[in-house]
Amino acid sequence: MRIAIPLYPRFTALDAVGPYTVLAFAPGCTVTFVAPERGPVTDDQGTLTLLATASYAELPDPDVVLVPGGLGTFDALGDEALLEWIRQADTHSRWTTSVCSGSLLLGAAGLLQGAKATTHWALMGNLGAYGAEPVTERVVTNGKIVTAAGVSAGIDMALTLLAQAVDEETAQAVQLAIEYDPQPPFNAGSPKTAPEGLIERAINLLV
């Protein structure tokens, strides 16, 4: 199974690296970072760079498309080369997926019309502009389209995808191999549970 993760300037590292780690552990899966051209692409913190080892033209027909989000998403919404690659790759893919604001790129590519989808909690209102039905869940499967909520939810999405694409035992084995056993020190990972006043502070970190 060939998985392609497109990179664009100011993507969020964990959106890409979390699912990459899950899927790269799975037998028979090959994960490739792609971009308009081979070369380095820097994340939204400006300090971490991933290497795209294939261009869009070199991998036009992956089995899985996995689009990360990031602070650069809104600039990327105007990147027609990226959107066209997503559209064309989707015609060949078995699964087309996203993490966080990456779902907005699926929407801009015309893939979410009438579909249930999720994204980062701060951007849920943006999905409607693309004809999607926003769903406040960590992972949402709508046919071949699988979307994940913010950042860390990409790991959950990748495990969900692996269970559907291969089998649950493989997904469970990978979860154990990477010791994915979340036990956060605070119950502040959702607007529903965050202490009063924390939402504004969190939003300030996102701009």
From TrEMBL:
Residue ranges of domain DJ-1/PfpI in the record: 1-163
InterPro entries assigned: Class_I_gatase-like, DJ-1/PfpI, INH-QAR
Superkingdom of origin: Bacteria
Name of this chain's protein: DJ-1/PfpI family protein
